[in-house]
Design goal:
Keywords: DNA-binding, Transcription, Transcription regulation. By secondary structure, the protein is of the alpha+beta class. The chain has nine helices and eight strands. Helix 1 runs antiparallel to helix 2, helix 4 packs across helix 5 and helix 7 crosses helix 8.
Length: 285
């Protein structure tokens, strides 16, 4: 199995991640990957194709598809498109988990040929996803309340119209392969400011250190330390871009041992020092 784990960090101040698909200019392919979050692709213009378990689901303007938690998928966008992507943490649905800690959603794109099943009308969900994007980015008066109202409307529709009451045994089994790592990475995202060690994490979740190390390399394609640094850097970068906190404060707030270690890691990843980013921000004010 050759696929990578995608680290998802919510947008600042909200419990979800919302953005325009990075393959909007076409000539784009995203290889097989997976993540814990539930994901919605809503195509506004053009078209692209999602691949789930190697089955192709072409999407045209006005169509959407729901990618379930731990579902291995890839994307191909050969032509220009405008697609809104909404990523929702799995824990948002925890009150609706089955006894197997499992929840699955359907969408019209995945149900062609299922004449015996009620197919949900995607237009309403697509409208709310687009409206959520517009309101969130326009930042008008009271947009915070409207943003969360639209978000909860989306969650409501997903539970009412898209949740599957039963799932095949093989689907649950396939999800279980990645669920163990999902629990661990979720814990790491909640405790990344702490001094997390591989040995301690292994003991906490009932694995040997060697087994947990192999699990990261197999399903995340990086080692434990690199994954932890990915989380810390993602949050630190967001804080650097969206606050006036000092670099030293940002480093310590996000689990780095020192300002120097933060700056070294930042430069390695972004080819620029955080102090240069800070100066550029000040110059634009």
């Amino acid at each position: 199995m050759e696929f990578q784990h995608e680290l998802i960090i919510p947008n600042e101040g909200v419990p979800f991640k919302l953005f325009i698909f990075e393959g909007m200019n076409g000539n784009y392919a995203r290889e097989k990957h997976w993540h814990t979050s539930v994901e919605i692709f809503a195509v506004q213009e053009g078209h692209l194709s999602l691949f789930l378990n190697d089955q192709e689901y072409p999407l045209e303007a006005g169509e959407l598809i729901i990618i379930n938690s731990n579902e291995v998928h890839s994307v191909q966008a050969p032509h220009k498109n405008r697609t809104i992507v909404l990523q929702i943490p799995l824990k948002q649905f925890q009150d609706y988990f089955t006894a197997q800690r499992f929840i699955r959603f359907k969408s019209a794109a995945r149900m062609s040929g299922h004449q015996d099943e009620k197919i949900p009308d995607n237009r309403k969900l697509a409208f709310f996803v687009e409206e959520l994007y517009n309101v969130y980015h326009q930042e008008g008066d009271g947009y915070e309340f409207r943003t969360m109202a639209l978000y909860y409307n989306i969650l409501f529709l997903m539970i009412r119209d898209y949740r599957e009451s039963e799932a095949a045994r093989q689907e649950i089994h396939a999800s279980r392969r990645l669920d163990a790592l999902s629990k661990i990475t979720s814990y790491m995202r909640e405790h990344y400011r702490e001094d997390l060690k591989l040995s301690e994490m292994a003991a906490l979740f009932g694995y040997s250190e060697a087994y947990l190390s192999r699990m990261f390399k197999k399903y995340a394609k990086v080692n434990f330390k690199s994954y932890l640094q990915d989380i810390r850097m993602a949050y630190a970068y967001r804080e650097l871009m969206n606050t006036d906190h000092t670099i030293s404060q940002i480093a310590l707030d996000n689990g780095f041992a020192s300002n120097r270690s933060f700056a070294k890691e930042f430069q390695k990843r972004y080819q620029i020092l955080p102090s240069a980013v800070e100066r550029e921000k000040r110059s634009k004010k």
